[in-house]
Amino acid sequence: MPENHQTFIDGNSLEPGTQRIGIPQRTDTGKSAEHAADHGVFGFIAIFQVAQTYAQDPTRMPGIKLPLCLPVAQPAAIDIVFFIQWPSCIDEMQVSPKRMHAPSLKSLTFGDFCQGIEIMYLEEGQYYFSGGLPVLDIVRRYDTPLYVYEGDIMERQYRLMTASLQVPSSRIFYACKANTNLHVLRLFRSLGAGLDCVSIQEVDLGLLAGFAPGDILFTPNCVSLEEYEMARERGVLINVDNISILEQYGHRHPGASVCIRINPHIMAGGNSKISTGHIDSKFGISIHQLPHVLKVVEATGLHVAGLHMHTGSDILDVEVFLNACEILFGIADHFPDLEYIDFGSGFKVPYRNDDIATDIMEFGERISIRFNEYCRQRGREMTLMFEPGKFLVSEAGVFLARTNVIKTTVSTVFAGLDTGLNHLIRPMLYNAWHTVENVSNPLGRPRIYTLVGYICETDTFGANRRLPEVHEGDILAFRNAGAYGFSMASNYNSRYRPAEVLIWQGRDYLIRRREQMQDLTALQDTGVRIPFEEPERN
Ligand SMILES: Cc1ncc(COP(=O)(O)O)c(C=O)c1O
Q1: Please, are residues 271 and 238 in contact by the beta-carbon 8 Å criterion?
Q2: Which end of the chain has less Cβ packing within 10 Å, N or C?
Q3: Do 311 and 223 share a domain, yes or no?
Q4: Of all atoms in ligand 1, which is nearest to the CA of residue 483?
């Protein structure tokens, strides 16, 4: 090692003239700062409200030579940045393998800053939500089953995505089917997102949440012409996914502005149920039907303002995605009035440690280069659009359930929960993986459990999962529950749907109350009295 390197307790060293910067999780209470100087930490770059907390109370950082609290948007020039996994305190500080030498922060992406923020973390035998709220306190306050979302993680994901796109004009439309709670919609509206809606009801929820009609894209599949008409009345952007409707809509509204959903015939997506762009898929208009589409456009004078594709969810291979984009560029040449191209979504989020995830910064960079090049070739600026659902909200949610019973059979130990496929159907519907943790007994001896629900079908959340010993009454937490969790929940078996809580800047808000019997019966109270006879009794 060259001379003058400073070496710290953790074994890492810095080159002379460089500085070490900590990026604490928002959960950090300041305890870690006391030890930071021993580790050569020069200052902190904090994200969102953590910056404010530190800035307001510099005494929380007594050991720091020069506290540096920067909102992420205004990074200063710093020579070196260490990314610190900060789940506990700096005593056990691990410097992550990611160690960056950067001439200035310009070369660091926002994504780099966002590392290490997690919705839930374990410290000294207790689970906390980001913001320092003990998970079990939240359970005591709101009971189970319960969905809990972290708004700051939604914000992080949104900013990550917008920062990844380096084009003159881009928009992110949140695919709200993933989570339609009005408060979540309002959060995304406040961030500047648009909304991608697949039903007129989602459109109406979006309008209720305050989205302007021009910020809503209606992207339905196999709906009636009447539903398109309803969307038109509301003034939202219309995306047509079949030739029959395109033709009828065009004849009714010659010259109207539409987006067209193309099926590029690419096999992408985590499994067949969530792959939408292949040749047998019901979604979109086949690229092979392009001549027909062009005829309809010519005959009706429709103004094709947008092209769209969505090839599936959980796409593993970015190359596949980029290939599909190329196909769309090829088609775009036929539509001179295009104002935007919407490449849909399908970004893969991690479901377990070391899981594959879309490297959004890399993807953003590559698609931006290609998009800019394409716009240059055309001699016309267009807006680059995406409509992520899972990417924005999946990791921002956990689902909490209570263990009703431990049932030991001759072959299996079941943990039977106070929930089922009625509340979280993803594992049963498409074998989705949710990492599960025992929040009540995190340090217990590991044992193997099959986690099941209370529904009268086999509703297995996970087979043979290794968990710290689970007792009856223990609370289990399912990660990645922010997307397609509550929005797919039902009242099957006449169970109430769970309550939902949003944590925003360290405070918890009840954003949907738990259902009651009257919620199950209200709509059946239509005033009719059918004269059924009383049974005869002996
Ligand atoms: C048209 C459309 N756009 C966007 C999405 C969101 O996909 P994801 O949740 O994988 O981001 C979907 C999901 O099914 C979709 O059908």
Answers
A1: no
A2: C
A3: yes
A4: 9
